[in-house]
Design a protein that fits this description.
Length: 118
């Protein structure tokens, strides 16, 4: 039998990465949005027979757009928090709890995955 190894991981040292079905899109002069491909069996049926759109668009505010752009640069949660504080100053406070809640929401919808830093 295989034995599970429970290794404690520090979230601040983890790198959030978008799942392959999720893409970031930014239009000129507007905040970005996440474009999620609808690929499950039920979603494909609803697209085909109920004429629903093949992608979902989730519009982000300026903090969410900034955060998702940082995903593309393969940065840790700690680095993203510090850069958010530099970029937005007092407006971003409390930066870490806000960022963690955003990441928790993305993870709950399975739109991001976590990678460890080397």
């Amino acid at each position: 039998m295989f034995k599970r190894v429970n290794k404690e991981q520090n979230l601040l040292e983890m790198v959030p990465v978008l799942e392959t079905k999720v893409h970031y899109h930014e239009e000129k002069g507007k905040s970005g949005c996440l474009v999620i491909d609808r690929t499950s069996f039920l979603e494909r049926l609803s697209i085909k027979y109920l004429k629903q759109p093949s992608v979902r668009k989730i519009h982000l505010d300026k903090f969410g757009s900034f955060t998702v752009k940082q995903f593309e640069e393969y940065k840790t949660v700690d680095v993203i928090t510090k850069e958010m504080q530099q970029q937005f100053g007092e407006e971003a406070e409390p930066a870490l709890p806000r960022l963690l809640k955003f990441l928790q929401t993305l993870e709950a919808h399975e739109w991001i995955k976590w990678e460890e830093t080397h």
